[in-house]
Design a protein that fits this description.
The protein is mainly alpha-helical. The protein is 70% helix and 3% strand. The protein has a two-stranded antiparallel ribbon. A hairpin with a 5-residue loop joins strand 1 and strand 2.
Length: 246
């Protein structure tokens, strides 16, 4: 049996890669304008349709924004986890994966993030974590604020791990597993339990105790899974569908 010959990349994708390489080599930062279309057409030696396909791809990935009108054109942006969340959602949808998949992945990943955060988190990030815990406590009667602070807390932990991959992964996973969007309700008693768990995690991270931080996070995710299994089993087994999560 012979290996299949790899399919060559489209010209537009190759040009997109060259544009990103040039952004890095020039040291462009967020808000910088890229060269005008006529310059890029000559520099990359492609047709207008190919160049525009390349730019559109980079726009969808969050690398650039295409500003319309005179003086517009491609402007450098900071990519976020949106395209990652979309890609993961589509992959999981076509694998017929249920929402339980995301919850289980968090259970495996987030204790490690908390462990690393206890070792690496900056004082500024630790202050953000404390502020999130306090804000959640002050607004336990407001589910919108609760959900916002819940996501913020886990984002700070992930980014505080010092591993960029974890930051993007948690952002994407939480974007897919938004309980309010898929039908998981958080009554006040449950919100109070989540706040208590966040406080325990914060205290462990603040004392720079990696083992205690990992254990507190593991217990928190386990509690979430047990709650969802008891109250919303159908939701956990529902298939992930792109249109339901964005």
């Amino acid at each position: 049996m012979t290996a299949a010959t790899p399919r060559p990349q489209k010209t537009a994708m190759l040009v997109a890669q060259r544009i990103v390489t040039d952004i890095n080599q020039r040291g462009n930062t967020v808000g910088d304008r890229l060269p005008p279309e006529r310059v890029m057409l000559e520099e990359y030696a492609v047709g207008r349709g190919t160049l525009r396909e390349s730019l559109r791809f980079l726009e969808l990935q969050g690398v650039i924004a295409l500003k319309p009108g005179p003086g517009g054109g491609p402007v450098v942006q900071q990519p976020d986890a949106t395209s990652l969340a979309t890609s993961l959602t589509l992959l999981l949808q076509f694998a017929n994966a249920p929402f339980r998949t995301i919850a289980e992945a968090r259970g495996g990943l987030e204790p490690m993030m908390a462990q690393l955060a206890a070792e690496r988190m900056s004082d500024e990030q630790l202050g953000d974590l404390r502020q999130s815990v306090e804000t959640m406590h002050e607004h336990l009667d407001n589910q919108a604020v609760f959900l916002e602070e819940n996501k913020r807390f886990h984002d700070v932990i992930a980014r505080g791990s010092g591993n960029a991959m974890f930051g993007y992964l948690v952002d994407a996973l939480l974007g897919i597993l938004d309980g309010s969007a898929i039908g998981i309700d958080y009554p006040r008693v449950r919100r109070s339990a989540v706040h208590k768990a966040h406080l325990s995690i914060y205290e462990a991270v603040a004392t720079r105790d990696p083992a205690a931080s990992a254990e507190a996070m593991r217990d928190h995710i386990d509690q979430y899974l047990r709650y969802a299994e008891r109250k919303f089993p159908d939701v956990l087994e529902a298939p992930i569908v792109w249109s339901n999560t964005f």
